[in-house]
Amino acid sequence: MEYRRSENLKDPSLNQRIITLIKNIPEGKVATYGQIATMAGNPQATRLVVWTLNSCSQKEKLPWHRVINSKGRISLKPGQGYELQKMLLQKDGIKFEEDDSIDLEKYLWSPSEIRL
DNA sequence: AACCTGACTTCGG
DNA sequence: TCCGAAGCCAGGT
To answer: pTM of the entire structure?
Structure first.
């Protein structure tokens, strides 16, 4: 499936779009880095998503915990924020499998009505 | 101005 | 199937 953006928009920087998208992740849903990058218009900017989360999650007040990797697992290491993220996700109503992974089929965000 | 980095993803051996 | 290596982007140094 393709995520296209309307052409008469201004051209905010890619990371600005990334920020906007992350802000739009609804409670109870998660998105993968690659998905965010794709929606922002550049499927190959996953590293940028990482950078964006690191640099803007706090000041932009992003729901950063809703962003996970493609395997449906938290990318942070224990003691580095892993536990916090897991807690926040559970607070959102997301359940973890026995191996601590998240069922993407069930929780992956489907941005059907998002317009940038 | 060149080089490094980051919570990833994908491809090849 | 599993692990290593390369690739991608923009801001920071």
So the answer is: 0.88
